[in-house]
From TrEMBL:
Claim: DNA-binding is one of the keywords in the record: no
Domain Aminoacyl-transfer RNA synthetases class-II family profile: 376-508
Name this protein carries in UniProt: phenylalanine--tRNA ligase
Keywords of this entry: Aminoacyl-tRNA synthetase, ATP-binding, Cytoplasm, Ligase, Magnesium, Metal-binding, Nucleotide-binding, Protein biosynthesis
Length: 527
C-alpha cells in the first residue's frame, strides 16, 4: 500500500469512507479537493474494479459579490430605511454620503415603493417602524440552498446581477466488485519465475488501462522535400520513366557544360554563377566509369523491361576519344551540319571540376549511354544542384531539380507541349503558357508558366526544350532521334504545397523541427 506520511492518499481515504457508507458524494465527502484530482483518483480505483462511480452534472446558483453583500448586510432599500430611521430624517442630497452611491440610487426608489420611507420637503423621513427585508432573506436562503425554485425569479435575479449559475460536476461513488479497504499489490509483468513456481495463478495482475494515452513516440519524420519528391517519383514511374543515377555532385565542365554545347564564355560558367573545385585541379577526360556502371546497368535493365528492347548484342562500343574530339570540333569549327561557335576551345576549361549546376549533367551522361543502343526512352531524376547565387527568401546556393528527358524518333515540339500539359495537369496546374526562351543546349526552348488553381495565379513552373543536334550527334545518337528535356525545382512546388514563403524555413539551420515532424502527408492536388 502506497501511503507515505505527510502527503495525503486520496485513494485510501475514498476506500475508508466507503467502508463506513456504501455510497458517497464527492462534493460532500471531499469539499476541499479539486474536481480533476478526485476524478484521477476515482479512475485509478475504478480501473481496478474497486469502486464504481457516476458523474453528476448539476447546476448551482451562487451569489455574486453584490448578492453576497446583500445577504450579509441587508438590501439597499433596507439600508436606506435603517439610516433614515436611526437619524429621524436625512436630507436627500446627503443620502449618498451616508449609505453610499449605489445604495442611495437603488435603495431610495425601492424604499418609497415599499412605503418604508417618504419625502418630506427636501428630506427623507421614516414611515414604517419595523420592516421585513425580504430580498435579504431570499438571498441568504439561496446562499444556503444554492437553488432558486421559481425560474422567473431566477431570471430576474440574474438580470439584476445578484446571482449567477455555475456548472458543478460531482461524483457518486459506490463499492466495486473488487472493493477492499486497501489497494492490493499489483503485478505488472508475467515473469519466467512466476510461470515456474505457479505464482501466476494467484497473482493479482494490474489490469490494462485502455484509457491511458500512449507515450509519445520519438519517431523520425520525412522532410517535406522528400515527401514531394516521392510524389514526383511516382508520377514519373506511372508514366514509364526510368530513374537516372545522379550521385555525382562534382562533375567536370565536360559533362556539366561542354557536352551540352554551352560555350566556354557563357555567363553561367563564370565564378559568379558556378562553384569551381580547386582540389583536385582538373578532371580526367570523359572515360569509362566503373563506379557508374552498376547504377547504369540497373537503369537499363529497367528500361529494357519497360520497352522490350534489344539485348547486349547490338550495343555499339563507346569511343570516348571520338566523343571528346567531336565536342571540341562542334564548339570550335562546327560539325554535324552546325557551323559551331568558332572560338579557341580550351581543354583546361573543359576539364575544370564544378559542383554541378543542373541535373542536365546527369541527363547528358544517361543520353550518351543511350547512344550505345538507341531506342525510345524516358528518363527522370530528382536531385541536388549548386549555384553561386545571392541567397534570399526564395533562393539558396543549393536546391533540387526535377528533370525529365524523352528520346524517340519523330518527336515534335507540339508533342512536348502536349506532354507537359498532361504532366502538369496531374499536379493541379492547368492552361500552360509557353514562352520562347534560350538554353545553349535546346532549340527551341520554352519557359513554362501555369495557372495554379490553389494559388489562383500564374507561376513560372519550368524550363524545357528539344536538345540540339550539337549535343546529341557527338554522343552517337542517330540523326533522326529527337530528345525532349524539361526541368523544374523541387523547392517551388514544396513551398506552394506547404505555404512556406521563406525557403530558409524549409532548408538550413533555421528549420523548425516541429514543422518537419508534424506536417501532413503530401498529396499533390492531382486531377
Ligand atoms: N537545365 C535547365 C535548368 O537548369 C532545365 C532544362 C532541362 C531545360 C532540360 C531544358 C531541357 O533550368
Amino acid at each position: 500500500v502506497a501511503s507515505n506520511s505527510g502527503t495525503r492518499d486520496l485513494a485510501l481515504e475514498v476506500l475508508e469512507q466507503l467502508d463506513q457508507n456504501p455510497s458517497l458524494k464527492t462534493d460532500e465527502a471531499f469539499p476541499d479537493v479539486s474536481q480533476p484530482e478526485i476524478k484521477a483518483t476515482l479512475d485509478r480505483l475504478s480501473s481496478r474494479y474497486m469502486i464504481k462511480y457516476e458523474t453528476n452534472d448539476t447546476e448551482q446558483v451562487i451569489l455574486t459579490e453584490e448578492g453576497t453583500m446583500i445577504a450579509r448586510e441587508g438590501s439597499h432599500e433596507y439600508k436606506v430605511w435603517d439610516a433614515v430611521k436611526k437619524q429621524g430624517q436625512i436630507e436627500i442630497k446627503q443620502l449618498p454620503s451616508i449609505v453610499g452611491d449605489l445604495t442611495a440610487k437603488v435603495g431610495q426608489g425601492n424604499a418609497f415603493k415599499a412605503r418604508w420611507v417618504k419625502k418630506d420637503g427636501n428630506n427623507l423621513v421614516p414611515v414604517a417602524d419595523t420592516v421585513q427585508d425580504i430580498a435579504q432573506q431570499k438571498l441568504a436562503k439561496i446562499q444556503e440552498t444554492k437553488t432558486v425554485e421559481d425560474p422567473k425569479e431566477l431570471k430576474e435575479l440574474q438580470k439584476r446581477k445578484l446571482v449567477s449559475i455555475v456548472k458543478i460536476i460531482t461524483y457518486t461513488v459506490n463499492k466495486g466488485p473488487k472493493y477492499a479497504k486497501e489497494i492490493p499489490v499489483e503485478v505488472t509483468d508475467l515473469t519466467a519465475d512466476m510461470l515456474a513456481s505457479g505464482a501466476w495463478e494467484t497473482a493479482n495482475f494490474k489490469p490494462y488501462n485502455f484509457n491511458a494515452q500512449g507515450a509519445s513516440q520519438n519517431a523520425g519524420a520525412l522532410h517535406p522535400l522528400n515527401k514531394v519528391r516521392t510524389e514526383f517519383r511516382n508520377l514519373f514511374f506511372n508514366q514509364g520513366f526510368v530513374e537516372m543515377p545522379t550521385d555525382k555532385f562534382v562533375e567536370s565542365g565536360f559533362w556539366n557544360f561542354d557536352a551540352l554545347f554551352v560555350p566556354q564564355q557563357h555567363p553561367a560558367r563564370d565564378m559568379q554563377d558556378t562553384f569551381f573545385i580547386s582540389d583536385p585541379p582538373k578532371a580526367d577526360r570523359p572515360r569509362e566509369d566503373p563506379s557508374a556502371e552498376k547504377a547504369m546497368n540497373e537503369m537499363e535493365a529497367g528500361a529494357r523491361k519497360l520497352y522490350a528492347t534489344k539485348e547486349q548484342s547490338t550495343i555499339k562500343p563507346r569511343d570516348y576519344n571520338q566523343y571528346f574530339n567531336d565536342i571540341k570540333a562542334v564548339h570550335q569549327e562546327g560539325k554535324f551540319g552546325s557551323i559551331g561557335y568558332r572560338y579557341d576551345w580550351s581543354e583546361d576549361e573543359c576539364l575544370k571540376l564544378v559542383l554541378r549546376t543542373h541535373t542536365t549533367a546527369s541527363s547528358t551522361w544517361a543520353l550518351h549511354r543511350l547512344a550505345e543502343n538507341p531506342r525510345p526512352a524516358r528518363y527522370f531524376s530528382i536531385d541536388r544542384v549548386f549555384r553561386n547565387e545571392t541567397v534570399d527568401a526564395t533562393h539558396l546556393a543549393e536546391f533540387h531539380q526535377i528533370e525529365g528527358v524523352i528520346a524517340d524518333f519523330g518527336l515534335t515540339l507540339g508533342g512536348l507541349m502536349r506532354f507537359l500539359e498532361d504532366f502538369y495537369s496531374k499536379l493541379g496546374i492547368e492552361n500552360l503558357r509557353f514562352k520562347p526562351a534560350y538554353n545553349p543546349y535546346t532549340e527551341p526552348s520554352m519557359e513554362i508558366f501555369g495557372y495554379h488553381i490553389g494559388l489562383a495565379k500564374w507561376v513560372e513552373i519550368g524550363n524545357s526544350g528539344m536538345f540540339r543536334p550539337e549535343m546529341l550527334e557527338p554522343m552517337g545518337l542517330p540523326k533522326d532521334m529527337r530528345v525532349y528535356g524539361f526541368g523544374l525545382s523541387l523547392e517551388r512546388p514544396t513551398m506552394i504545397k506547404y505555404g512556406v514563403n521563406n525557403i530558409r524555413e524549409l532548408l538550413g539551420h533555421k528549420v523548425d523541427l516541429n514543422f518537419i515532424e508534424n506536417n501532413e502527408a503530401v498529396r499533390l492536388d492531382k486531377n
